[in-house]
Amino acid sequence: MISDGAWHGTAQLRFSCSADGRTRHQGGTTAPLKVQRPFGRADGRCELPLLHTAGGLVGGDRLSITAQLGPGSRVLLTSVAAQKVYGSIGRSRLSPAGAWARQELNFKVETGADLEWLPQDLVLYANGLYEQRTRVWLASGASWLGAEVVRLGRTAAAETLGEGRWRSLLEIERAGPNGEGSHWELVDRLELGGEGLRQGHGMAAEPVFGSLVWAAPQPLAAAPLAQLLAACRADRGDLPGELACGALEQGLIGRYRGPSSQAARTWFSRLWARIRAANGLAPPERPRVWPFQEEPFAGLTADGRTAVG
Predict the structure, then answer these.
(1) pLDDT 10s digits, 171-189
(2) Is the full-model pTM beyond 0.85?
(3) Cα dist. 286→78, 148, 174, 276, 295 in Å?
(4) Are 289 and 297 a contacting pair, CB within 8 Å?
(5) SS3 assignment, position 195
(6) What is the CA radius of gyration of the chain?
(7) Measured between alpha carbons, how far is 259 from 152 in angstroms, rounded to an integer?
(8) CB–CB of 252/232 below 8 Å?
(9) Strand (E) positions, 110-258?
């Protein structure tokens, strides 16, 4: 859909678990979003790639993605390629301050369902403005894993973010037993731009930021949680950059700051394997649309459940 010269692409997706234990999907999209052919994994999970056919976002563009998972369904949502956000500051005499590109994500995950939102990288060009809001509603016993890797400027071309900004708001709401009441498990608001790109409490002049959040289906006991966090921290190995991992009330959170998108993806993939094992799920496999030259699970044992730290 095009409005005032800007795109508003939408995806409305629904997933259900059939009698044979396989997850099926239905729904539709509007341009420039398109759903690729789904792939069913051996454990019944539906792997569904989303394609942005416009080749990138410019100021004023919007993407809205909604996914509803029925009880017991298992889904991996990813993207076919990295998302580009072009600079808009100073590009128009009518809007010299630039216009924001926005993405809105709304996920509803019913009891016993598991959703993994693992898109490929976001590349924010110089003077680009991008804002994302993610709203996750979880039933009791549902789980959600989300990760994002953001490159602030095309550093291979000696480009920085300049006057651009990146904003993110993640809200995770959990329903109580029997659907009664609800509480916020996490409200995570972030913004990178200006002095925060250079100062030590921000990006310290590093070009890549990454964030991973896991909302577990049940609270983890103290000992298993401590063991999981220790293993995740050990999985950093000799990867470049700063990597930190901590506990949530019901799950964990990981952050990356450094020079390498590949390092962030590699560490997050190791955490993904750890989380699958802690969740009692099958080891993850590289999505078919991810770069073939990378081996994100290199260093895992044969069963894919334990990383070498």
Answers:
(1) 999 998 877 789 999 999 9
(2) yes
(3) 11, 16, 29, 13, 8
(4) no
(5) helix
(6) 19
(7) 10
(8) yes
(9) 114-117, 122-124, 129-138, 143-152, 165-175, 182-193, 208-215, 242-248, 251-258
